[in-house]
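Forwarding the complex inputs:
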Amino acid sequence: MPEVRLVNVTKKFGKIVAVDDVSLQIHDKEYFSLIGPSGCGKTTLLRMVAGLTEPDEGEVYIGNRLVTSFPPEDRGIGFVFQTYALFPHMNVWDNVTYGPRVKALESEESEKIGREMLEMVRLFERLDAFPSELSGGMMQRVALARALSAGARLLLLDEPLGALDAKIRHDLRYELRRFVKDLRLTGIHVTHDQAEAMAISDRIAVMRKGKILQVGTPKELYLNPEHIFVANFIGESNFLEGYVTKLDNGYATIELREGLSVQSLDKRHKEGEKVVVAVRPEVLAVERGERETENFILGHIEGFRFEGTNIRYEIELKNGDEVVVVRPALAVEWLEVGEKVTVSFPADKSFVFAYPKRGLKNELALE
Amino acid sequence: MRVLDSLSSKSTVRYLIYACSLAFFFALILIPPILGIVLKWGTITDVFTNPSLMSRATSAIYSSFAIALFVSFIDVVAGLPMAWLITRGGFKWLKSLDTLADIPFIIPTVALGYSLLLFWSDSNQGISSLFGSSLVSQGWLLIILLHFAFSYPVIVRVMVGALLDYKREYEEAARTLGAAPLTADRTVTLPILKTALISSFILAFARSVSETGATIMVAGAFENGPIFISNLKTAQEPGYEGALVFVSFILIAISCAIFVTIRLLGPRLKMPIKKVWPVTERKLSSSRVTNLRNGMSLLVFFLLILIPSLFVALPSFYAITNGTLNQAVTGAGIWQEYWQSLILSYLVGAIATLLNIVAGLPMAVLIARRRLGTTLSSVLDVLVNIPLIVPSIALGVSLGIFWENFATLPEIGLLIFVHLSITYPYLVRSMTAAIERLNTDFEEAARTLGGRPFTVFRTIILPLTKYSLFAGAIMVLTRSVSETGATLAVTELKTAPVLLVDWVKGGVKATPIEIGLGCGILIAFSFIILLILRLFTRERARY
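Prediction (whole assembly, two chains):
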């Protein structure tokens, strides 16, 4: 039932356009994430779904109801705030049963819901505690129980894990998804952490400067980014500038600086066009010494970092461009700083984008 | 400065400064009024042997507290919706309303009293002229209207500040859980802002119990505590000294008892938040009812507060055309004494402000940074508030007795000490709150970079709290300039408000236009001060 539809929604704060003519459809029982850098408009968009911010233009639908002018209390939503916003003057029990009480449910019914929700988040034994007596993770679970206790079918989460330690954050994100799926809810999760969104979402919308750049499953966004910003924001990419010099045999040949060239299966650009080749660090192959492999460029190791699971090499190519290559730390023999290497570019795993009009650095900037 | 910086590293020097500040507070602010009463305790029996005086005294005390309690309640009822309208109304013009709500706060109360007297009571002017006779004659009702006018801004000011600081997410969370706006305000916002509400209630209550000058103007034959003391001082009838000590003691004791009770029990006060009436509260949250409530708030504000408060400006305008202003500017006739009194008022105010800054800043650091440990600092925090809640004329009486017995001070010295006692809490409270809000990380960062304690204080704490220091200093100055009761109690010297009371009561013959202009000039000075404060506030916006 709670499919969410936004039609040409715009919100301005003075001269700043926070959300710029956005249309979006979120399916029933979907776990959907809105991600993007700070100030991209993702929280404003979520608040417009909740009715906490009124759009200047456009329409918001929840289910089949046009709810644009509805106050938050009439939208049938649950909202988890980044700071949790647990009422400091109420204990856990009163916080969790607040929703049923203000909706005038019978006291037995309120108690039943409160009990169920607190048992679900495994905090029933802390029902007398006040928010100031709880840990961050506990507060997050109480906030979730409170949001769900009002009987919402649509759960809105505004950076719900943002205030937690890395380890707890990692564990709780799967728990969040499990709750939403077990209770057959629709969830909209706002975060700036792409790894978090990738791990738990059915679909993700990437936003920048009030606009949605791409919507897709985590796999689609990672493997087929349609925008150079998405290629950078989701995962990590190396970017090499060049020109398309030849289109034949199913390949596009891109000439990089100093006459070096690479081939790609991405042939969306014309001969002579200035482009940027994007390639993920983990798909580049690196071998010791100078070898004549397919689609290769020579270089040397500038530095490396041991990251536990992976080892991360910083390599300067022969033309002065720099690339990062990530290899499994324990599966390969490590290379040393200064060693000459050969870097191979898989033609089927690189993306070619038109060179951005406002420059590559500006286009990738997060601010 | 370097010498002071390096001296501040020595703990003995630091403790010496704190000790001086504590000694100043106890020796000059807290103990003298208590000792003053103790010294004359023996005379208190006189009042028990004089039934008519006793009956007048008890009735005056009862009137003081009954009026203060009633006025504080209607302040809350009328002030809360106004604070909500200013902070949640969402219109740009509400910012002007915010400034307008400050006006009765900064008008010296005697000018306010005279203004209300003209508006409500003078059958030839104001609202009474519409009816051909005095609509509200001098007496308890006019006192209530007067006290409402000057204590209402206290509630609005404190609650607007609290609502602006309040994390609105709590209210939004309640709304997303299904609460109607009124339910969310009643069950979430108001209980969270309970401390601010209690503080504003205490301040409004104290202001009502304490006010003297304006109350004398509008009271007629009616007596509350401060008027009774003032009348006793003037008439000096037999047994007056005992009655003076008795009433002062009771006013001080009950005020302190109420203050301590509210401070102790206030945080434990449970608001009725368990019960919810979704249908009724939803109806009461509708835009029709909200607009009606806002309309009523504006009507009350303009009709009962703003217009009566500024009504005195009207005779000031006549003064421009009929030559009174000219006389005033040249200092002719009664105006020479007026200007002298104004200079005296601002001179005493300025000295009291400076002394307050010097003695109050270390005290604010002591309390805010818990230098004496949590318990002692909390006790000190309560103690510094006492002059605020004690009726100023009662404080004046006891201080007068103390200084008469312990030192021969020139009258001006006595006046400065009395003003210092009354205004002391304003600067300390303002700076304590500001330093408490300041993250200790800033100070610690400065210390790790090599800053000595005094260097940190003057380069980090002071610049970051300068707005509060300035606001506190302005409060001290305006409070001192408008102070009447204690001044009347201790000296024959005439400050501007005392002189204006004299003009109104006929001690000096002055025409209504002259009185109006006298009040108008006092108000004009206050406006200039408010303007400076506003300009300074704007400066603050950069950080």
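Chain B has two domains: 1-39+335-509, 42-311.
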